[in-house]
Here is the input.
Amino acid sequence: MDSEDDLSVADQGPVITEDAPGFDMLADADSDNQIAVQKSYQVLARKYRPQNFDDLIGQEAMVLTLTNAFESGRIAHAFMLTGVRGVGKTTTARILARALNYAADGVDGPSIELDEMGFHCDAIMQGNHVDVMEMDAASRTGINDIREIIESVRYMPASARYKVYIIDEVHMLSKAAFNGLLKTLEEPPEHVKFIFATTEIRQVPVTVLSRCQRFDLRRLGADDTQKLLHKVCAAENESVPDEALALIARAADGSARDALSLLDRALAHVDPAQGDGAALTADTMRGLLGLADRGRVFDLFDMMMSGRVSEALAEFEAQYNMGADPAVILADLAELTHWLTRLKFVEGAGDDVTFSAPLRLRGQQASEALSTRVLSRAWQILLQGHDETLRALNGRAAAEMVIIRMAHLADAPTPEELLKQWESAPAEVAPSASTGSPAPASPAPQASAAPSSQTQASSSASVGNGGSSGAANGETARLTQPQTEFQPPVLQNFAALIALVEQNRDIGLKHALENGVHLVRFEPAHGERAGRVELRLAEGQANIAQDLTRKLRQWTGQNWVISLSSERGAVTVASVRQSEAELRHAAALEDPQVKSVLSIFPDAQIVSVSDFSADALPAVDDGMTPVDADEYPDEDA
Here is the structure.
């Protein structure tokens, strides 16, 4: 809880009394009116602040730990209190400081039993005790503020048992301030205790956390918050309906201070002439909490999910003209989507009192009509659209684009549904929706054949377009079967394997097969039998066996086993091609016509040989089978 110090009488300004100068003058100026000086109103969040550990709601684990620690004398020198805003961190710190310095008639030691007010209790709870120093780290973040604490810890307390330093929002301290506090925090004097409070525990350095006894104050549940509100209403002699208090408890979201502040506002809303809080109906509370327009949010959601784009945009514009922020409208739609999804899985989610009874019934019907996949897709679109709207230069335009996107994708089939439709589609294809001409029938693809990347791309494009068009026109998407049965490529030799790699444009793998491997054995795949390729890697070549195995299965739809061997194997494909080029060059030099040309142009050189007759070349192995190492020495040898 944020630091909130009660104002003492001296802090409330001068009090006008009859003895004060000028009182008679005021009375003479308006003798018909009586001047009544009343004490300023104290808000409920301060008036009903817990005074002892028994008043704390929902923190049983922390209270039990502290009770046992005080009874056994195992009291830590530093405490870290963390939790959401309004859960009671600062109040707990003051109660803990009161327990440490508790002194009353017959009691002279730290005590967890605080039923009676001790000598120091009132000043500590008011926040003005001389030995209990409270510091707001949000406004005093520097090392100089910590130096004051380091200097003052050397002195004994003035009247209490311990000097207690309460530092609120401790995560706001600078890095230098944290470092300056470490030594004192680890070994403080026996008369010093530290109590820290923060809402951002992850921003506190671990070196500080390791020196403290940490307590996580849990968020108050809706039932606990409602009990607190009933207790306060009874103390204030106010009768507020249970449904109105339930709305306040849900809106407080686990914060006791927020709940009491909302109750304060609700009681102030009641006309004094109408009596007490009994006039606070559930509908009145929904209006105060900004929940009255949820019916219009539901209307906009229905329009989008049914594909009525024009009506949805008109409703959005109407809400925008009434002052609603575009990002808030999308956030409300996302909250509604979340609630509809919870209705499917969470028992009792339909009893949410923040929705009126008609809207709860409407939500139950919508949750049953919409699938989880559709609601999840709507959630993702709204979540992304909300972020786009916050970052866009024109928030209204961005929100309208999100609504249009939602309306067009609302009834589009999910990828899983498209796959099921494709698998269950009949062999004969329905007439084309665009031309009206029948498409030729084609057999269904074999289940064992894996389609190539090009076939997958064309199939995906056809299915995607059909789904979008069907969703936009309110018709069922028509799926087109592949026109021909997939035929896996046949690899009869190593050259065909390299050609397949080149066809799939895997340049890195092709270079490795041509320059970095020596073929030892090649067995093509046949039927159910897997293909086998045995290789020896050249020096410096990375292992490509796993990558080649995976890609061959993907490209051919057949199993392949790629293994490494220590046998010598054939020379690399690149070496064979180099040998062929050298032989062609030598044969060209012996050609009579080439000799005559070179004699006329002595500075000329043969750069390359093209379309040369293969019969003129000596027999050279093609690199696909092992060769005699003596005839073609291994370049790695």
Summary: Residues 421-429+449-487 form one domain. The radius of gyration is 41 Å. Confidence is low (pLDDT under 50) at residues 1-37, 427-482, 614-637. The beta strands are 78-82, 103-104, 107-108, 132-136, 163-168, 192-198, 213-216, 517-523, 531-537, 560-564.
